[in-house]
Structure to design on (108 residues):
């Protein structure tokens, strides 16, 4: 009996109109490197792609300032091209039916 493949954790990617894709780690590092995560007491985030050109960036944290939201939007657009990015503060990010949490969800 041979093992065909080993599966670890799986994660959706976010795709841009320019053909690039981003893994959840990009968003994690963006929040850490910009210091938004620390400044805004961030607890959780989730990036939801509803369409190729539309992304909701949900954040459970203290309210972000406009310049912080702008920084996130510009950084994402630089990587993905012409996408609408909505940075939205939320009180809670629900888990999936399985009870798991996914940082990136794509409807594509």
């Amino acid at each position: 009996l041979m093992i065909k493949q080993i599966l670890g954790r799986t994660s959706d990617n976010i795709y841009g109109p320019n053909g690039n894709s981003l893994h959840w780690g990009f968003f994690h590092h963006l929040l850490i490197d910009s210091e938004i995560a620390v400044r805004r007491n961030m607890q959780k985030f989730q990036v939801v792609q509803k369409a190729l050109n539309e992304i909701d960036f949900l954040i459970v944290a203290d309210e972000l300032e406009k310049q912080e939201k702008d920084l996130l939007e510009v950084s994402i657009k630089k990587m993905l091209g012409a996408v609408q990015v909505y940075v939205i503060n939320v009180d809670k990010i629900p888990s999936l039916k399985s009870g798991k949490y996914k940082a990136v969800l794509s409807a594509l």
Summary: The CA atoms of residues 14 and 26 lie 10 Å apart. The longest helix spans residues 66-80. The first strand starts at residue 14 and ends at 15.
